[in-house]
Amino acid sequence: MVVDKPLTWLKTLSIFLDTLSSTALSRCWPALIITGIWSSSICVLNYYTHGKLSIQPTLITVFGTVLGFIISFRTSSSFERYNEGAKLWSHIVLNCRILARTVWFHVPAPPKDCHRPIADEITDQDPAKTHKEYAMTLIEKKTVVNLLEAYAIAVKHYLRGEEGIHYKDLYPLVPFLSSLHYSFPAIVPSKNDEIRRLRRRHTHDPNHDTSEFSGRAAVGPTHEVTVPGSLSRLDNRRFWTDTTTKTIAPPYYDPESLLPAELPPRHCWRAAFPFPIFFWVWRILKKHFCKLGADDAPQNFRPRKNNVPLEISLYLTSYISALQTRKTVDNSTLGVLHASLNQLVDALTGLERILATPIPFSYSSHLWMVTLLYCATLPFQLWSTLEWFTIPASVIASCVFYGFLVAGEEIERYDKNDLNMEYLVEKIIRKELHAITATPAPNPAIWAFSKENNFLQVGQYSKDNSDKIPAAWVDKGREEILSALEG
């Protein structure tokens, strides 16, 4: 029996603070403090001037209703984008299931006349040819299933702006991707500075090059191997029998130098309103007065040429193309593979669209200015009725309005309240794909004719069931089965 250890007060406090940092209060506490100071000042002035600074609370009714509708629309728009992201992730899970099931169950062993890249090593006189072809097919199919898992993981890192493939959950699945030279523009902004910082922390080898984090693997000693000749990089799984000797450097990785699978954003006091406004103004002034050039501009929002999920989709496409050329599957199976892969890329495109098209800045800025103006005028309107209770009332009202605004903005970006992509990738996709490939495909000739299969009387089980097993019904013949089905 496993007994959970009681939480210490320090651990309880840590959990409480971590939970508190996930609330909207942690994003707007400076604005609430400023509101409290402002309300206190207005109340003191009204007290000593006998309410000369107070005004009629008509604006509370008029502008409060309008502002409430606008903030509600803003929050609803953010939640709609959040919901759409969840739907697109469910499409990724669905199509990974379909592709894995179709590849693992519907791709048979290659025919005897199918030439593979190492076909010259397996002659017709070789008695082990069939076993090798089956082994090669299993390796191909398992690698493709691994690519499906890698696709979901790569989408997770890509959406968070984490470049490259050097992550503990991604690199073991796609070490061959380190030799790619595709220049796919990344629509999602990268957080390259954070990655460089973590990479320096996780790298212990002083000779390890971390100056260029472009998704390439570390390279070991070169050696000569015989590889098939090909017309392009994606054609190296085609059927040429001529071979050439090339000197290649096989990639390897040091597990200690890989970045962690999850890089949660650190909660920073600068993210709380209104500090981002001050830093935004400071960056603009610094850019204009210090005359920063393009090379000195911040690196976080430069488009990167590192769209790993799209590169993985090319490998999946090349596998489907190879199946089509080998003629090992029928057209309906190819159609399912093409449709599912297209849905994966479509989900990636939809997620990119959500991140690349945020709420317009003019709308957000105007909403913030109206909210600030409304909260600033609250003490003038509440003094005549609440007097000193104006201070807590203004703070509470500001907390409501600011809270909804920062909650709407928080939903749109990756933070502690974002979609649990780790759960989708590790707990659902990874475990399901492993379960599919862990056992051979079920054989209908075995499970359909099992002695335990009482296919006529579902839910009615008895010990003496010898005359109702499938083998007995086979002996009785077609007419007996049809008669029993009618009864």
Automatic annotation (TrEMBL):
Protein's UniProt keywords contain Amino-acid biosynthesis: no
Record's bilayer topology term: Multi-pass membrane protein
GO cellular component terms listed in the entry, alphabetical order: plasma membrane
Superkingdom per UniProt: Eukaryota
TM stretches of this protein: 54-73, 363-382, 388-407
InterPro entries: YneE/VCCN1/2-like (IPR044669)
Location in the cell: Cell membrane
Primary residence: membrane
Annotated Pfam families: Bestrophin_2 (PF25539)
Statement: the UniProt record of this protein carries the keyword Transmembrane helix: yes
GO molecular function, one term: chloride channel activity
Keywords on record: Cell membrane, Ion transport, Membrane, Transmembrane, Transmembrane helix, Transport
Region (Disordered): 202-229
This protein's name: Bestrophin, RFP-TM, chloride channel-domain-containing protein
Source organism: Suillus placidus
